[in-house]
From TrEMBL, chains A, B:
One matching Pfam family: NMO
Cofactor needs: FMN
Keywords: Detoxification, Flavoprotein, FMN, Monooxygenase, Nucleotide-binding, Oxidoreductase
Protein name, as recorded: Probable nitronate monooxygenase
Gene Ontology MF annotations: nitronate monooxygenase activity; nucleotide binding
Family: Belongs to the nitronate monooxygenase family. NMO class I subfamily.
Catalytic activity: 3 propionate 3-nitronate + 3 O2 + H2O = 3 3-oxopropanoate + 2 nitrate + nitrite + H2O2 + 3 H(+)
UniProt cross-references to PANTHER family, sorted A to Z: NITRONATE MONOOXYGENASE-RELATED
Species lineage: Bacteria, Bacillati, Bacillota, Bacilli, Bacillales
Biological processes annotated in GO: response to toxic substance
Protein task: Nitronate monooxygenase that uses molecular oxygen to catalyze the oxidative denitrification of alkyl nitronates. Acts on propionate 3-nitronate (P3N), the presumed physiological substrate. Probably functions in the detoxification of P3N, a metabolic poison produced by plants and fungi as a defense mechanism.
SUPFAM superfamilies noted in UniProt: Inosine monophosphate dehydrogenase (IMPDH)
Protein origin, superkingdom: Bacteria
Length: 363, 363
């Protein structure tokens, strides 16, 4: 087989990996140590999606991972965005949630303890400390850019920083703030939208447009994310100017992933593209496979509490739905390429990507 | 320079062109004979956007074009979708339009003569007759699939048929109906959305997802459209499985294009991606650069008459705005890659695409 020198580049060197393939840091139980270690051991970059983790959970998983791989792996954190806790909004959302709780035989709730911004921010700062203390080589961010102090502190410890952007403007802001790498999240991407400057609609840019615009305007390596599932997507991203790819849905359905079996099956059995954007689960827009919860919440979408308040309000519903193997009330995050997902091992996925990339290169 | 055999394929053979580059059939005055002939003469496929043309205008342009090029060119028609003429909706839209008319020193209007479905359908059938009589080798469709009778008639005359799809389901429907080629319009695309089965939101699929899903499921050649501006986009589309590309915005800002100078400048001077989807201009969703008209109409968006009724209602406003060189009330259609547009000749654009594609191939 021909050599594929374009796949060994500034990105693979920075991240100290063999192939320019990053496993997207899917939060909420998907990125088990098994998944992350398999990716890193197969030559990609495994990532812990630590957004919802306590510092203690983070430390435990990091230590577990160090036993499972001697290769690089990274960790992703959610940059806290200011939010208000509005009692009226919470009450009215809770009332809607109670109808779902009835359907799922869950106790109704009147009051729910929700986080406030200060506590979320404090946790974030503790997470940063764990990253430093555990000498994680790569730390990535979603939902914004950390403060200059945090960035300086991480850089002092030689941690490679990677930010997320959904538009050119956001990519430029990431580079300016000192990020070493910028992940551009196309409108194709599953899960939460990472936009933090541009508004929701204007931040839905397809990768065919987003990648070349960004690489023409920033100097640091760009990683493409959204709808990339195989060697075709990797090579297309590289043609457009990206140095590598970050893949979520493709890893989510892998055997090693910790995603719920119902979630995996919903993706594997999808017919065509049937994903939609919703903020009903968390208060933040995210892409997933349409189910009853999304449909029934459509009408209420613009009057819900912000992230992460709404996320806390739906927690028992998502959990119970999972326990019942009921796909209708779970957040079935998926990118627009669900139809291309396969149930396979991480090693097979990565090897197939590389083989296909080589075939395309030699065509 | 290395050979680029992947650019000579079943598509270039079917269309009898040198390069797999199709100029998108932008309706409304953009596809002047100068533009179309320049594209065909430079080795691509020039296309007349005849959607809004009378049969007589079509025939005149075809005859003019035959003097300007001996190469293949094609023509695009809008497949009529049934619509209702609702007097109340028209009156209420007209009231809103009157405030814009005031701003533009246009006479207020109380009643406007709008087309009805029968007249639109009759015109379409006459357009089909012109295509046959003038022996146009390639006929393409947007907004749906013509009836089996129309398809049979065109095929009897050996006309190559190309349909437009925004989702896998729509692509499959096009192939089933007998289309020889399917254009997949990604969410990146400028101008009108071509969805005709899937609903608006669900039909916004990025090319990174749309191309591979479609090529895995249909047998006829697939052409990618949306956000493609240069050799990077062409090679990315080919990596994803398309046989060629259809480019609108890239040709719109060419020197030979008939687009209004104000429209060209709005695209050339855009900062980052600032396109939005609106149905305010025509009653059908379309992507363009945000201006006052779009912003002010946002609130009314869901109560407007259907296409093409609303299009008729805004005609005087768009026209007068153009006459005044006022960008704020024109439909500034553009794809999400506006930032990559250049003012150049068609030949330079096409030559640069091919050079860049070769460089990428030999990297």
């Amino acid at each position: 087989m021909g050599s594929l020198t374009m796949l060994t580049n500034v990105l693979t060197k920075l991240l100290n990996i063999e192939y320019p393939i990053i496993q997207a840091p899917m939060a909420g139980g998907v990125t088990t140590s098994k998944l992350v270690a398999s990716v890193s051991n197969a030559g990609g970059l495994g990532m812990i999606g630590a957004g919802y983790m306590t510092p203690t959970q983070m430390r435990e998983q990091i230590r577990e991972l160090k036993q499972l791989t001697s290769n690089s792996f990274g960790i992703n954190l959610f940059v806290p965005n200011e939010f208000e806790v509005n009692e009226d909004e919470i009450r009215s959302s809770n009332q809607i949630m109670n109808s779902f709780r009835d359907e799922l035989d869950l106790p109704r709730k009147e009051n729910i303890e929700v986080p406030n911004f200060n506590s979320v921010y404090e946790t974030f700062m503790e997470q940063i400390q764990v990253v430093i203390e555990e000498r994680i080589p790569i730390c990535t961010f979603t939902f914004g850019i950390p403060s200059a102090d945090v960035i300086e502190e991480l850089k002092k410890h030689n941690i490679i920083l990677m930010g997320t952007a959904t538009t050119l403007r956001e990519a430029v802001a990431n580079e300016k703030a000192g990020m070493d790498i910028v992940v551009v999240q196309g409108s194709e991407a599953g899960g939460h939208r990472g936009n933090f400057i541009d508004k929701d609609q204007e931040s839905l840019v397809g990768l065919m447009s987003l990648i070349p615009q960004v690489v023409d305007n920033i100097g640091v390596p760009v990683v493409a994310a959204g709808g990339i599932m195989d060697g075709r997507g990797l090579m297309a991203s590289i043609c457009l100017g990206a140095k590598g790819v970050q893949m979520g849905t493709a890893f989510l359905t892998c055997i090693e992933s910790g995603a719920h079996q119902v979630h995996k099956e919903a993706i594997l059995n999808v017919e065509g593209d049937t994903t939609v954007l919703t903020r009903a689960f968390s208060g933040k827009w995210a892409r997933g496979i349409k189910n009853s919860f999304i449909s029934e919440m459509q009408a209420h979408q613009n009057n819900l509490p912000s992230f992460p308040v709404q996320n806390t309000l739906t927690q028992d519903i998502r959990k119970k739905s999972g326990e019942q193997h009921n796909a209708e009330f779970m957040s079935l995050w998926s990118g627009q390429s669900a139809a291309l997902a396969k149930s396979q091992s991480v090693e097979t996925l990565i090897q197939n990507i590389i083989e296909e990339a080589k075939r395309l290169k030699n065509n």
